[in-house]
Amino acid sequence: MKKTLFVFLFLFYSCAQFSREDQFREECEKVRNRSYIFMLPILQRHTADGNTELNSAVWIGNAELAYKKCISEAEKNRYNLRSN
């Protein structure tokens, strides 16, 4: 009985389908975090015109707009399923 239950649970979890929304949201968070971790220090050290505050503010605005667009794309994929 235990073996049958184990096999059934294993097959259930291996064949389960998850929403792609969660997968997209994870990618959005990764891209957003990398943008803040890696790009902001570069912008603060190396700028073409010397105005680091403006360049950082523009970069943050662009990063947040890209994040919002990414989240909206994730919400569109709520009912698209992926198989493992």
Output the keywords.
mainly alpha; two-stranded antiparallel sheet; 3 helices; 77% helix
Account of the 3D structure:
It comes from Leptospira montravelensis. By secondary structure, this protein is mainly α. It has one domain (18-83). The protein is 77% helix and 7% strand. It contains three helices and two strands; from the N terminus they run H-E-H-H-E. Helix 2 (20-45) runs antiparallel to helix 3 (52-76). The radius of gyration is 21 Å and the shape is elongated. 1% of the residues are buried. The mean pLDDT is 76.
Largest sheet: 2 strands, antiparallel
The total strand number stands at 2
Question: Averaged pLDDT, please?
Answer: 76
Rg over C-alpha atoms, rounded to the nearest angstrom: 21 Å
* Shape, per Cα inertia axes: elongated
Strand content range: 5-15%
How far is the N terminus from the C terminus?
27 Å
Helical amount: over 70%
Strand order of the largest sheet: 1-2
Q: What is the N-to-C succession of helices and strands?
A: HEHHE
Helical element count?
Answer: 3
Low-confidence stretches: none
How many domains?
1
Structural class: mainly alpha
